[in-house]
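Practice problem: Formate--tetrahydrofolate ligase
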Amino acid sequence: MKSDVEIAQCTTLKPIEEVAEKMGVGRSNLELYGDYKAKINEDQNERFDEEKNGKLILMTGISPTPAGEGKTTTSIGLADALQKIGKNAAVAIREPSVGPVFGMKGGAAGGGYSQVVPMEDINLHFTGDFHAIGAANNLLAAMIDNHIYHGNPLNIDTRKIKWKRVLDMNDRQLRHIVDGLHGKGNGTPREDGFEITVASEIMAIFCLSNDIKDLKEKLKNIVIGYTTEDAPVTAGQLKAHGAMAALLKDAIKPNLVQTLEHTPAFVHGGPFANIAHGCNSIQATKTALKYADYVVTEAGFGADLGMEKFINIKCRLSGLRPSTTVVVATVRALKLHGGISKTELEKENIQALEKGLPNLLQHLEIMQETFGVSTVVAINKFPTDSEAELEKVAEQCREQGVKVVLSEVWANGGSGGEELAQEVVRLADQGSQTTFTYDLKDSIIGKLEKMVQKVYGGKGIELTRNAEKEIQKLEALGYGDLPVCMAKTPFSFSDDPTKIGRPRDFTITIRDVKLSAGAGFIVMLTGNIMTMPGLPTSPSAESIDVDDDGKIVGLY
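Answer key — structure tokens:
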């Protein structure tokens, strides 16, 4: 069996000008990065009109497990399938972060015969967007410490600096450091730390900006810390936002590549969904919708994380609304939610499946009842799935008025998703009326309680003393009307990753609160969520190599 990278390398790609021309983008609007990658350069002030643009298909999934669900693969395969049934379609997804590529995941550009290509470029450096984001983030960090070194006229309290440097790599050693050592000439000694680039507020701003003017305004509003009198200090006060925007002016343009079947693919931006808002850029999504009648986009993890943030954050800021949704599941993952071990997944086990199915059913309830959007379930089919198991999933979903469709896009590309495409078109053409979980005028605590009760299915929240004080401060400073961004484990509806399936009667503990005033939300940190991951015992980096001909191997 060929690996993902071998399949990708055996595919004959079309010049990116041909892919662009097929959907109506002329050469004058392309900035080429070689033969198969380009940025789309258009008038960013052109008004987006939802009524005159394509229909947006939102892909989400059940709570993830080590068995894998295949959400990105299904997103890409669905776009190919829509093309196969005669629809003008595109896919709009996130860029992979290098850290996880070398950590646990290997490649993150789809899989099998449902990939975006050139997958090696997309997984590693691509068009340099993440480098630009890291540079902008670290420029601000340097200007903060330079301001303090040269007399600190803004009276920044070095104990209250919230801004961290970033690196697009999993490196636990950098989570907590002390810098500015060895004398006055090297700065002011203080406790500090690094985050992974995709956790940076710059990444969130990058993805949530509607145009360059909006980008500059958001950068200007970043709160980097507080004065000794507890007044917020912004990037605008440090006069950093203009130079940061200069570093991002090219990166913010959407990237265009193609799938293995030459369907246009917009791959742009990459915030994680467990520690950020988990969606690709507004600019890429809107650009895709201008040229395609159906655009498949993906929200990270499940309906309780990426999709929730897509609705409550990205939709509020952009005017975008999904026409319908797809939830991806596997029989294997549902059996894991039912409590059996990974070694037992290939055996038929209806009892374990029945115990795990409530996880899927709650995701459907979130989509239908909490957010008011129609949905279809895509079962990513494995050869070991029995007919009885597949029928049990279909039966349970039918009771909630949701159709189940088998997806075989990993093995067969677009032809393995044609039935799914037909159902998606049917639902999308009917449309949905999206509703938000909370009102922005609700108190911060009120928003959190609605989130836990309406989305997670829990009882309520508990606040540490530190979190309670921070919430009170932010409301007093006028930030209480911002949406909340939950940093939570993706493996459970609760903040405890061991509570799989559909836990009940739990509370969510908010241990810390982080203001992202530029991005326009407040991050709520729960459980042991960290903004700088580490590498596993056997990282994927051990298997990735380049042969004597310069061809990358081991990237799967």
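Discussion: The two ends are 12 Å apart (CA to CA). Students who identified this feature from the tokens alone can consider the problem solved.
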